[in-house]
Amino acid sequence: MILDRFRVEGSVALVTGAGRGIGRSIALGLAEAGADVVVAARTAAQIEAVAEEIRSLGRRALAVPCDVNRGDELDALVDRALSELGRLDLLVNNAGGSPPTPLLQLSDEAFEEAFHFNVTSAMHLTRKAMPHLLESGRAAVLNISSGLGHLVEPGFVAYATAKAALSHLTRILAAEFAPRVRVNALAVGATLTDALAPFVKGELREKMEALTPMRRLGEVDDIAAAALYLLSPASSWVTGKVLEVDGGTTASNWPLEIPGYPGAPTAAGG
Q1: Mean pLDDT value across the chain
Q2: Enclosing H/E stretch for 63
Q3: pTM for the structure as a whole
Q4: DSSP state, 9?
Q5: Domains assigned to the chain
């Protein structure tokens, strides 16, 4: 049956940024589809709570506190996954982010920090995991990118540039490791994560929804469903692709102008 192709029975998945939001939803979705899951994030209490939810679904779970900005912790993360769960088949590079900062206020250090957090960490973890993924026979890597990696929104110099690099890293790694390991990405649109939802209320939310063809913002399960497709045998003929999951947006639906770039309103509205 076609639905069987969305199952990942017997696989071991590793998800970063899995304590909440998109990462948590992907981790739980993979567990529902049959995977054992390593959940990693900086906050131990959050990932242990997610691990308990996975165990309640009848799957094995391992919670590993990890700061993806530190290469030694990424290496230790893979080592623990292998030592405690025995194999590694699916990798989700979800951890990332960077606050909006206009160019004239952006330091070299902040730009490089954004690049490291969003791109270098994913590259490092994939490189560490790849020898084991190559042995899997059913391996897939998924990078969580952003619609801002191809849409234009002033003020997101560091974040958008880093996500564009992550999307292209996806294409290059897919070519390098096909056909044994598939590598894809999601270009995620505005999604009501734990981080975004508190700031998107009332008139602001109405404006964003009006600028979105589907007339709503994303839910984390929208992203998890697309992730399951790209990680499961259902997408066995798909690699090197960046799937846009964004409510149909072809232009940014961020209605606020970030103060600090030429042409933006002043504090007095001039």
Answers
A1: 94
A2: strand 61-65
A3: 0.94
A4: T
A5: 2-243 (3.40.50.720)
Among the listed residues 213, 191, 196, the one whose alpha carbon sits nearest the alpha carbon of residue 146: 191
Which residue among 6, 117, 156, 159 is the active-site one?
A: 159
DSSP state of 240: S
Which residues, including other chains, have CB under 8 Å from residue 202's CB and lie 6 or more apart? Answer: none
Contact 31, 61 (CB under 8 A): yes
| Beta-ladder partners of 92 | 15, 142
User: How far apart, in Å, do the first and last CA atoms of the chain sit?
Assistant: 62
Provide the 3-class DSSP secondary structure of residue 167: helix
In this prediction, residue 270 carries a pLDDT of 28
Active site residue 159: yes
Side-chain-side CA neighbours of 262 within 13 Å: the count stands at 2
**What is the pLDDT confidence band of residue 266, given thresholds at 50, 70 and 90?**
very low
User: Which backbone phi and psi does 269 adopt, to 5 degrees?
Assistant: 90, 10
Strands 61-65 and 36-41, how do they pair?
parallel
